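tool_call predict_complex ligand=guanosine-5'-triphosphate
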Amino acid sequence: MPRFGLFPPTRIAPLQNKFAVARAIPVPPLPADVPPGLPPPDQDESLQDRLRRRRRTEWKRRQRGQTFLDNLIVSIHGECAGSGGDGCVAFHREKFVPNGPPSGGNGGRGGDVYIMPTPHLTTLSGIAKRIRGNPGGNGQGTWQNGRNAEPLVIRVPLGTVVREIPRGDTRRAPDEWEAEQESLEGLNASERLQKMRDNRWLHYPRFGESNMTRDSFKDAEQMLYAQERERRYLQRQREKESPIYLDLDKALETTRAVDAPLGARHREPLGYLVASGGNGGLGNPHFLSQNDRTPRFATRGHPGQRITLAFELKILADIGFVGMPNAGKSTLLRALTGGRAKSEVASYAFTTLNPVVGIVRVAQDGTFEGSLQSEQLYDETVLEEQRAQERLERGEPPSGPSRTGHRFDLAETFRFTIADNPGLISNSSENVGLGQSFLRSMERSLALAYIVDLSGPAPWDELLVLRGELDKYQLGMSRKARIVIANKADLLGGEGDPHAVAEAKAKLRQLESFVAEHMASVGDEGRKLDVVPVSAKHSQNLTKVVGLMRQYVQEARDRLGGPVPKQLNVFEAPRLIAGVEAS
Ligand SMILES: Nc1nc2c(ncn2[C@@H]2O[C@H](COP(=O)(O)OP(=O)(O)OP(=O)(O)O)[C@@H](O)[C@H]2O)c(=O)[nH]1
Ligand SMILES: [Mg+2]
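tool_result ok
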C-alpha cells in the first residue's frame, strides 16, 4: 500500500491503482559491476537504454558545460567572402579609338556582419559555427564598379551575451594576417613574395612579369603595404581597447517618426555591427599617373575582418529551479506543465543536462494545466515510455495530459515560465559537476525556487549548500529565492500509520523552523521563504505552489514594469473554467 501520510486521504484510492501499475512493470536494476559504456550483449533493451543514458551523462559531465547549446563559439570569416570584390584591369576600346584610357571598374565592398537580437527565437542552435559574410562583386570593364554586398544579419534570441575572444586564447581563429602568415609557412623568400603579390594584385594577361619592373607598380605596392599596416594597427588597438561585448536583453525598436510623410523611406535596424566587410579592390584607372599612362594592374579586394565571438544565452524564465541532483526538479516541472515540458526523469544524478523551460498556464480560479487530471502520475521517463508502448500494443488510445490542454487556450488568465536546471552540487560555482554554465542562465530568472528531497536524511543541509553555491557564483543571488519546495513528501508518513505521520509532520516542522531561522535574513527586505511540502510524482499540493509562484512573478513583473499578463475576455473565462471543474 502506498504511503501518503502527509496529505489528506481523499486521493489515496486512485493513486493505489497507479502504484500497482508502476510496480507491475519490471525495471531491471543497473548492475554495479557493469562499467558504463559497455552494455553486455545479452541484456534486454531497457537496460541498454539506461547504460546509454548514463554514458551520455558522463560524457556531458566531462565536457563541463562546453556542449550546452547556450554556449557557442563562432568565427566570422572574410577569407573569400565578406571580402571586397577585385578591381579590374581593362582599357577602353572603341571604333577609331584603338588605345583608349584604362577603364577597369573597382570591386564592390564586402558585406558587413551584424548581430540582431530577435524576440521570437529561443535557442542558439540555428547559428553556424563558421559564418562568412557576403562577397562584393568584381569590377568590370568600361568603368563598371562591382556591386556592394548585402549585409549579413545573425539573429540571436534575447538574453544572448556576445563576447569577443581575445588574442592568445586557443579557441580564437587566426585573424586575416595570421592566416596569411600560416599559409606562407615553409616557403622560401621569393615564393613568399610571389604568393603575397598573387593575393593582392591582378595583372593584364601576360604582363605580370613586366609589371614587377615598373616604378609605378613598386610605388603602388609600397603604398598598399603601408595602408595594410595601418589597418592592422588600428584593428589590434581596437581589440585591446574596446573588445566586443554585447548584452542583448532588448529587441531593437524601429523608430518611425509619427509625422513621417507618406512614401518616406523607412529603414529597419540591422543590429550591432561585429565585423566589417573588406574594401573592394581598385581598378587600373586608379593607378594612372604622369609616369604610367597605361597601368596594367589592379588590386584584389581586401579580406573582411575575421573575429571569433563567444555567444552565450542566458535563459529567460520567470522562475528558476535550484536543487541537488535527484531532488525531483524535472518531475515537478512536468507536473506543473501537465506533462508538456519534456524534461527527462530518471533515478540517477545529472539526468537533466541542459536547462529546460516549461510554461505554466493558470486559469482564473487557480487551476493550472497539470491539475486537470487528478490521477496523473509523473514517473520516470523510461517507465512512461514502456507504458505508452504497452498501451499502443493493446490498441488503446494514447492518454495524456496534453489532451486536456486545449481548454487552457481560452481559460488561461495568467502564464509564467519555469526553468528546470541541472542539479547543483557543492562547488558547482567553481565548475564542478555540470559547472557554471546553467548558473549563468539563472541570473535572469525573476525568482528562484529551492527544491529539496524531504525524504532525505537532512534536507536543511541541502538548502545550505544550494544557498552557498548561488552566493558564491554571484553575491546576493540567493535573495531571489522565494520558496522551498519539499518534494517526495509521499515517501514519508509510512502508509498512513499515525506514528509515521507524526514523524513526517515533525520533520516538516523542523525544516520550516530551520528555514525561518537560517534562511529568513537572506530574503529581500527580511522576507521569509515559504515552505511547501509536495509530491511532484503524484501531483499533490501543487495548486498551492502555483498560487505562490504566480504571486512572486506578478510582484516581480510589477516591480520591473514588465509584460502585463494576458487578460481574457471576462465573459468567456468563467464559463470555461466552470466546464473544467465539472469534468
Ligand atoms: N516518490 C517520489 N519520487 C519522486 C518524486 N519526484 C521525483 N521522484 C523521483 O526522483 C527521481 C529523480 O527525479 P528527477 O525529476 O529526475 O530529479 P531531478 O532533480 O530533475 O534530477 P537531476 O536532473 O539529476 O538533477 C526519479 O526517480 C523520480 O521518479 C516524488 O514526488 N515522489
Ligand atoms: Mg532533472
